[in-house]
Design goal:
about 170 residues; mainly alpha; 3-stranded mixed β-sheet; globular
């Protein structure tokens, strides 16, 4: 059965996704290919500006709601309801451990290191992590705000599909 610690683990994952989205909207956020060529995550300046505005709206509204909920601070979705939702979605025990291990294997540590400390992320690793986050965010759809976070992440993936991995 899920517990408060599971809420905090999932909260950190959601917070990481929001940080990745914010980072991706920055002009100096770059992805590198295997040849060492770097390009902006969102190369088109106009689209990047729109994306940045969308991310800030998401962070201020749905992101804040998801983080409050996963902290047990949403009166409309109390902690016991969050814990039940996480348990139903398999965000506890061995299932949670497996999901987190896959996300780590997909590059979470490397991506978050760059997001927090600067540098370039390899395009292939970034796309792999975003793909792994699909299942995680989809399973959190019962958490207020999580679906909107997944949707904006999905749109970012569509932008990345326009650029080849190599």
């Amino acid at each position: 059965m899920a517990d408060y610690d599971d809420m905090l683990i999932v909260r950190q994952l959601v917070d990481d996704v929001l940080l990745v989205l914010r980072w991706s909207a920055q002009p100096d956020a770059t992805l590198g290919d295997d040849r060492g060529v770097e390009t902006a995550v969102v190369p088109d300046e106009g689209l990047r500006s729109q994306f940045a505005s969308a991310v800030e709206q998401l962070v201020a509204n749905q992101g804040a709601e998801a983080l409050r909920t996963l902290s047990g601070q949403n009166a409309e979705f109390p902690a016991d309801a969050v814990i039940a939702a996480l348990g139903s979605a398999g965000w506890d025990g061995a299932m949670r451990d497996f999901k987190l291990a896959v996300i780590e294997l997909a590059g979470r540590g490397e991506v978050m290191g760059v997001v927090r400390g600067g540098g370039t992320i390899r395009r292939r690793i970034f796309r792999t992590l975003l793909a792994a986050l699909n299942a995680a965010l989809a399973s959190l759809s019962a958490i207020p705000g999580a679906s909107a976070i997944q949707e904006l992440k999905d749109f970012l993936e569509k932008v990345l599909e326009r650029e080849p991995d190599e």
